[in-house]
Amino acid sequence: MNENHKAGFVNIVGNPNVGKSTLMNDLVGERVSIITSKAQTTRHRIMGIVNTPDYQIVFSDTPGVLSPKYKLQESMLGYSEGALTDADILLYVTDVVEDPTKNAEFLAKVAKEKIPVLLVINKIDLVKSQADLEAIVGRWKELLPNAEIFPTSALEHFNVTNLMSRIVELLPVSEPYFGKDALTDKPARFFVTEIIREKILLNYDKEVPYSSEVIVEKFDEKEGAIHIMAVIYVERDSQKGIIIGRQGSRLKKVGTEARKDIETFFGKRVFLELFVKVEPNWRNRENKLRSFGYIE
């Protein structure tokens, strides 16, 4: 083993919708995190692993920080707060439109961190002038005086290479934590559920996507194809009707879109069957949250 090999955990935190998942996917170079324009799309901590002969970076994308309204969100906030305790480097992601005083309590915890904090100001492609950008950077310097600031645009890959170089510099010397061929700590079926959930977020409005959970009940992989059976759980009969749509049309659309992405992800043919079941008030029921993997 290379004596100077570096390895470490880099945790990505911040408020919903600032582009944490887009940034992580850019850094990891694979579509590991679910990305849509809706807030609160990431419900779990998702790890993406970058390997070279000289280093291993374990990135961890966390749910956006928010005041919990139900038990599911309490569990999500727990993942974000846990990310402060087990990192070697912390990436705090904000953007150019966010109010810096939002979630001041969480920010105060970040300000007290002893580990290196890299403050990523994302979406700078939306800033009109250099003076505006300097003003934004100035405000953040006051709030997180110990942080190194990186203005970036994850969408346009601007300044992401510099950010990556700095992360590598800051990594501690260590043996790898995972096998050098690992891309993530999540099993294959986890990504199937994330892809299906993304399609639900893109195809339905209001409360329906947030009341939905996807469980893969069958994942049968053969040499040339994968047969997948998945259940979409919702909280009410009316939501079930909305998900299915007239003569099954909306569910069919979700299934088609998800199948194409799953085929791209695994690089083989996929047969996908989707079912919809009602599980009343699952977001507030501990036994259900446990069985869905939100509570250990």
Give the secondary structure arrangement, pairings included:
Blueprint: E1 6-14, H1 20-28, E2 46-51, E3 55-61, H2 71-82, E4 89-95, H3 104-111, E5 117-122, H4 130-143, E6 148-151, H5 160-170, H6 188-203, E7 213-221, E8 225-234, H7 237-244, H8 249-266, E9 269-278, H9 286-291
Notes on the protein architecture:
This protein has a 6-stranded mixed β-sheet with strand order 2-3-1-4-5-6, with helices on both faces. The protein has a 3-stranded mixed β-sheet with strand order 7-8-9. The protein contains 9 helices and 9 strands. 34% of the residues lie in helices and 23% in strands. Strand 7 and strand 8 (225-234) form a beta hairpin. The two termini are 35 Å apart. It is globular and about 55 Å long. Helix 6 (188-203) runs antiparallel to helix 8 (249-266). It has 296 residues and is an alpha/beta fold.
Q: What summary fits the major beta sheet?
A: 6 strands, mixed
Give me the strand/helix succession. EHEEHEHEHEHHEEHHEH
- Gross morphology: globular
Radius of gyration, taken over Cα atoms and rounded to an integer in Å? 20 Å
> How confident is the prediction overall: mean pLDDT?
82
Placed side by side, the strands forming the largest sheet appear as 2-3-1-4-5-6
Proportion of residues in helical segments: 25-40%
Let me know the number of strands.
Answer: 9
Strand proportion, as a percent range, falls in: 15-25%
Uncertain stretches of 5 or more adjacent residues: 33-43
Q: In whole angstroms, how far apart are the ends?
A: 35 Å
Derived from helix and strand composition plus strand pairing, the structural class reads alpha/beta
